[in-house]
Amino acid sequence: MIKRIVIMEVQPGREAAFLDTFEQVKKEIRAQSGCLGLEVLQGRRHDHVTLCTISQWIDESALEDYRSSDLFKKTWSTVRPLFANKAQAWTLTPIESVA
């Protein structure tokens, strides 16, 4: 399993547009083959709202299939203009989880 973390600083006043888009596509993203989970988190950084998505995938191949999909391309082209800065993304492999 891998986790994909994407951190996005959103332009002031554009947060609702991002969250509206997320609301529209979250079930489709979650239904992608190999997607095990999806969440969005919110914080503040440098006077911008920071939104973070964390998705879980069975493997990197499943993530890349999603990233090649029309759904990803359409979603990314909608939200990308809302960003104050370039998004940061990491693909991580869990080593240990303590509940």
Which tags fit this structure?
99 residues, alpha+beta, Alpha-Beta Plaits, 4-stranded antiparallel beta sheet, 3 helices, 4 strands, 35% strand, globular
SSE order and pairing:
Blueprint: E1 2-10, H1 15-30, E2 35-45, E3 48-57, H2 60-67, H3 70-79, E4 88-92
Antiparallel strand pairs: 1-3, 1-4, 2-3
Radius of gyration from CA coordinates = 14 Å
Strand content: 35-45%
The rough form would be described as globular
How does the helix and strand content classify structurally?
A: alpha+beta
SSE series = EHEEHHE
Structure report:
It is globular, with a radius of gyration of 14 Å. With 99 residues, it is α+β, with helices and mostly antiparallel strands. The chain starts with a strand and ends in a 7-residue tail after the last strand. It has a single domain, classed as 2-Layer Sandwich (Alpha-Beta Plaits), CATH 3.30.70.100. The model has no long low-confidence stretch (mean pLDDT 95). 9% of the residues are buried. Strand 2 and strand 3 form a beta hairpin. The protein has a 4-stranded antiparallel β-sheet with strand order 2-3-1-4. It contains 3 helices and 4 strands, in the order βαββααβ.
Brief summary of the model shown:
The chain is α+β, with helices and mostly antiparallel strands. Helices cover 34% and strands 35% of the residues.
